[in-house]
Amino acid sequence: MDWYCATFSLMLLCLAECIAIAWIYGADRFYKDLELMIGYQPSVWWKICWCFISPAMITFVWVFSVSSFSAVTYGDYEYPSWGIALGWIFGLASLVPIPLVALISILGERGSLTTRIRKLCQPSEDFGPAVPEYREKYFASLETRRSYLPTLRNRRPQTKLSMTEVGSLPEAQIFITSS
Q1: What are the DSSP calls for 41-55, one per residue?
Q2: Distances from the Cα of 8 to the Cαs of 3, 14, 169, in angstroms?
Q3: Quick check: helix, strand or coil at residue 82?
Q4: Residue 124 and residue 158: Cα distance in Å, rounded?
């Protein structure tokens, strides 16, 4: 259990998380999310780690552990084949949801395969803070970003109405309070 879950699948889960945050969602966008939450921008060191250092180190550890793979033993005792198979099942159980949910999401969308994947790799139109004041600040910060690191996802999602248009609708007035 320790070998299959901690070494093999945990490294792949961490790598998938690094890629999703830094390259698909976008390190710059995640950076702006953190700035909005904590009130200041973290050091650029974090961005470098998310984009390059962490994925490289995780890949190195995973490749090294897979290349030095040998049958699991406990002292002189060698586990039976069914025990090794059970270990692989437990280890892969944590990985199966990632491609399974991706496949279900892709099949649930309309359009060509590339259109579906592009749509699923973008934040939805209503993504962002719920409070209008913070929402405006959030979208303004995305439009004025200055990046020196590459990411695949940097654009603001297309909205049907601007926040000023939404705020002027009668239905929206019940949510706006004066301070």
Answers
A1: PPPHHHHHIIIIIHH
A2: 7, 11, 53
A3: helix
A4: 9
Of the candidates 94, 81, 175, 88, the one whose C-alpha atom is nearest the C-alpha of residue 133 is: 175
- Predicted TM-score (pTM) of the model is 0.68
Q: Dig out the tokens for 118 from the structure.
A: 């592009």
Question: pLDDT tens string for the chain (179 positions)?
Answer: 677 777 788 889 999 999 988 888 888 888 888 888 888 888 989 999 999 999 999 999 989 988 887 777 888 888 888 988 888 888 888 889 999 999 999 999 999 999 999 888 877 777 788 888 888 888 877 766 555 555 544 444 444 444 444 444 444 444 333 33
- In 3D, which of 130, 151, 119 has the Cα closest to residue 55? 151
In whole angstroms, give the CA distance from residue 15 to residue 54: 8
Joined tokens for residue 104: 């279900």
Long-range Cβ contacts of 8-15 (<8 Å, 24+ apart) = 8/62, 8/65, 8/66, 8/91, 9/91, 9/92, 9/94, 9/95, 10/94, 11/58, 11/61, 11/62, 11/65, 12/62, 12/95, 13/94, 13/95, 13/98, 14/54, 14/58, 15/55, 15/58, 15/59, 15/62
What three-state secondary structure class fits 28?
helix
Cα 30–chain centre separation: 9
Contact (Cβ atoms closer than 8 angstroms) between residue 26 and residue 152? yes
